[in-house]
Amino acid sequence: MPYVNIKITDEGVTAEQKRKLVQGVTQLLVDVLNKDPSTTFVLIDEVNTDNWGVGYQLVTELRLAARH
């Protein structure tokens, strides 16, 4: 019973993109590990950019700096 947790920033990911992630990860586990897709769980956590840091900065700050 595989369980995969994907964490992404909450920057406009569509339902279709999430569906593709779930389908793709599930298929990868089927292909590589011969897992049963009916018992494969994929959880997507969307994290606010104020709650995600890279290096010494919040992703929100990094995104703002990249725009300027």
Description:
The chain has 68 residues and is an alpha+beta fold. Helix content is 41%, strand content 26%. The strands form two sheets. It has a two-stranded parallel sheet. Strands 3-4 form a two-stranded antiparallel sheet. Helix 1 (15-33) links the parallel strand 1 (3-9) and strand 2. The mean pLDDT is 97. It has a single domain (3-67), classed as Macrophage Migration Inhibitory Factor, CATH 3.30.429.10. The radius of gyration is 15 Å and the shape is elongated.
Give me some keywords for this one.
68 residues, alpha+beta, Macrophage Migration Inhibitory Factor, two-stranded antiparallel ribbon, 2 helices, 4 strands, 41% helix, elongated
Structural class: alpha+beta
- Give the SSE order as H and E letters: EHEEEH
* CATH overall fold name: Macrophage Migration Inhibitory Factor
The percent range for strand residues is 25-35%
**Sequence stretches where pLDDT stays below 50 over 5 or more residues:** none
Report the CATH superfamily. Macrophage Migration Inhibitory Factor
- What would the average pLDDT be, to the nearest integer? 97
How many structural units, i.e. domains? 1
Give the N-terminus to C-terminus distance in angstroms.
Answer: 46 Å
**Extended strand count:** 4
